[in-house]
Amino acid sequence: MLSLPGDRATVAPFQPPALPLDRGTLGASPPTSPPALRQCGTGTRKTLPNGSRIPYYCENHWLCPRCSKRYLRDVAEWSHLMLTRAPSALAVTLTLGHRSSTPIAEAFEALYEVKREFHRGGGWSRLMNTHGVVGFQLVTEFTFSEETGPHPHFHGFYFSKQASSFDAESLADALVQRWVHSAHRLGYEASTGSQSAVIVPARSRARMASYLGKDHADNWWPHDGRDTIGSIRRRAVHLDPYARTLYDELVLATAGRDRTVTTPNLAGRLAAAADSRSRC
Ligand SMILES: [Zn+2]
């Protein structure tokens, strides 16, 4: 059974244990043993060839409290900048159906497989052309509950050069339909009701962009009653054996996997789109 070592009111603020540095886990192949629950960046130095010593960062964007927090904060800031440059944008949540018995790595693999299917082929090109899609930025989040199982999902933005809200609404519909079709084509469950695509109003850009920064490993509050990477990590640090099992599964599920997926040269593409609009 999952059980917190105490409730929110009684748990002391989490202090990561001062353990020796671990190597990053973003290798090409999964590590044979899970990394220790270690942190990096403070009190940890790396020696450069010239002899100077600098703080060492493992750059594990999933499991390292420091590196994931820093990375997702940068992603959120950058997304905010892209939102200010796009004529219109949709904030999306894309997800698959899940079961309690599904291994975490399998849930991740399914999600990424559908993502690849979604963004390829003539159907995707037509959708981009029809709705003026310039690019996108997706971030993977993860929640878990014993009842419903692992729930990796994407949050992010699709940027369009079309400015009217009518166009944005039909794009929202097209994205959701295509996601569900892509999932079904590969034999996975997805329902239109579980996806969301909403227009980003100018006044909400900062808030909606900052949402992408929340699922870092130093954020140990459960989300909507579900565990997160941070809450699982925290309980694993406190030697909860069930959380440690989940953490070890997460290590394997995330090894070598990108935390974000972004259209190459998105900033340049948005600039080119703005340029062509100003010439019209
Ligand atoms: Zn790190």
What would you say this structure looks like, in words?
The protein has helices at 65-85, 104-118, 121-131, 165-185, 205-210, 229-237, 241-254, 266-279, and strands at residues 45-47, 53-55, 88-94, 133-145, 149-160, 196-199, 227-228, 260-262. By secondary structure, it is of the alpha+beta class. The protein has one domain (66-279). The longest helix has 21 residues, at 65-85.
Number of helices: 8
Which blocks of ≥5 consecutive residues have pLDDT under 50? 1-37
Beta content comes to: 15-25%
Total strands: the figure is 8
Major beta-sheet overview: 6 strands, antiparallel
- Helix fraction, binned, reads 25-40%
Task: Kindly give the count of domains.
Answer: 1
Report the principal-axis shape. globular
Radius of gyration: 20 Å
Q: In summary, what is this structure?
A:
By secondary structure, the chain is an alpha+beta fold.
Describe the protein's topology.
Elements: E1 45-47, E2 53-55, H1 65-85, E3 88-94, H2 104-118, H3 121-131, E4 133-145, E5 149-160, H4 165-185, E6 196-199, H5 205-210, E7 227-228, H6 229-237, H7 241-254, E8 260-262, H8 266-279
Antiparallel strand pairs: 1-2, 3-5, 3-6, 4-5, 4-7, 4-8
Helix pairs in contact: 2-4, 2-7, 6-7
